[in-house]
Amino acid sequence: MISFLDDDLKVTKEYDADTINKATSLALLLAGVDVTTGTLTWALCLLLNNPETLKRAQEELDQNVGSERQVKESDLDNLVYVHAVLKEAMRLYPPGPLAMAHVSREDCIVGGYHIPAKTPVFVNIGKIQLDPNLWPEPNEFRPERFLTTHKNIDVRGQDFELLPFSSGEECVQGYLWP
């Protein structure tokens, strides 16, 4: 990545390589920290307001991990309910409620609206994830939906009902769970 940035510096005279490298590193660090912190904060808020869900998640953790050690990456596949809780938290409170801008390649019609070529378009992820046509009782915290009706929905941008990390080239790549 740094060599890529260094190549681009030939056309960027405003900033030196050190400034660009520091800014890029900071952006990557903040993106990772902010998404994790925000998701876990909302998940904890939702769990604290839903004691039965909290109890079920805790039981799954106790059964699969125990209280003597921390969760390991190898445990993740067994934490199906905890995974559902996190998906539901990201559905209700996506890390980025708007996807990164895309630009229309040609004139098109979207939802009855004319979009001229080369127009920046933002996908409202937050609105999609609360659409009652896609999610029964969309404002309710119901992790169980990811164990039944929405069991196979992926968070990596393959299923457009749930896009907490956007999709396509802008999709966040650091997500571990399937």
From TrEMBL:
It comes from the Eukaryota. It is found in: Membrane. Keywords: Heme, Iron, Membrane, Metal-binding, Monooxygenase, Oxidoreductase, Transmembrane, Transmembrane helix. One of its GO terms (cellular component) is membrane. InterPro entries: Cyt_P450, Cyt_P450_E_grp-I, Cyt_P450_sf, Plant_Cytochrome_P450_Monoox. Its cofactor is heme. Its main location: membrane. The chain crosses the membrane at residues 26-48. GO terms for molecular function: heme binding; iron ion binding; monooxygenase activity; oxidoreductase activity, acting on paired donors, with incorporation or reduction of molecular oxygen. This is Cytochrome P450 CYP82D47-like.
